[in-house]
Amino acid sequence: MTADDNAACGRWEVVLKKMGNIRLVRALRGSQVLLRLGMLAVVVTLMAACGPSSGSATAPTATTSAGAAASAPAAPAAASVSMTDALRFEPATLTVRKGATVTWTNGTSTVHTVTDDPSKAANKADAALPSGAQSWDSGNLNPGQTFQHTFDTPGTYKYFCLPHESAGMVATITVTG
Questions:
Q1: In a domain, 42, yes or no
Q2: Is 63 domain-assigned?
Q3: Same domain for 86 and 35
């Protein structure tokens, strides 16, 4: 949401809260209960849409113990990953649709990379690409910098931070067809 969207949502919240508080009480006393309940549903829906978010466009995909996707929301077309002071990618596991662009943000005070190149991995198990996918490397990302990669090949990608691979800074992205 943009700042203008947030401001508009804030104005709607105020108006809708007043409408809901005044008219809902009258409606519950009158004969138009169903109409007012419908209005309340609209108010709740708008407030939920305008409510605070976590800042992430990603909803985690639930998996069963066998690793198959459980009933979960569809994979997003765009997602964000943070690099943390704990030397981790958050989220460490992500599922996106083919064609999705993922943005990594270095929110720490140290340099990181976003690398999926088996030839650069100290431990070959820390890098994996689906058949036909090209390796990639962000290069050094200083504090506050971002890197984006668009995933055009479905499959599982296992990537790492070059300077912090041995500390366990690895993560996985699954790209669905």
A1: yes
A2: no
A3: no
Return the SS3 of 165.
helix
Q: Count up the domains in the chain and report the number.
A: 2
Host domain of residue 85: 78-176
For residues 148 and 7, what is the distance between their CA atoms, to the nearest angstrom? 28
Asked if residue 87 belongs to a domain, the reply is: yes
What pLDDT was estimated at residue 68?
44
Domain identity same for 84 and 23: no
pLDDT digits over 17-51, tens only?
Answer: 554 544 443 443 444 444 444 544 444 444 444 44
Structure confidence at residue 28 (pLDDT) = 39
Catalytic residues: 112, 161, 164, 169
CB 160 within 8 A of CB 82: no
Q: Which burial class, exposed, middle or buried, applies to 155 when counting CB atoms under 10 A from its CB (0-12, 13-18, 19+)?
A: middle
Closest listed residue to residue 162, CA positions, set 133, 130, 139, 134 = 139
What are the CA-CA distances from residue 145 to residues 85, 109, 149, 163, 164 (Å)? Answer: 15, 11, 14, 16, 17
- What SS3 state is found at 159? strand
* Partners of residue 175 on adjacent β-strands: 96, 155
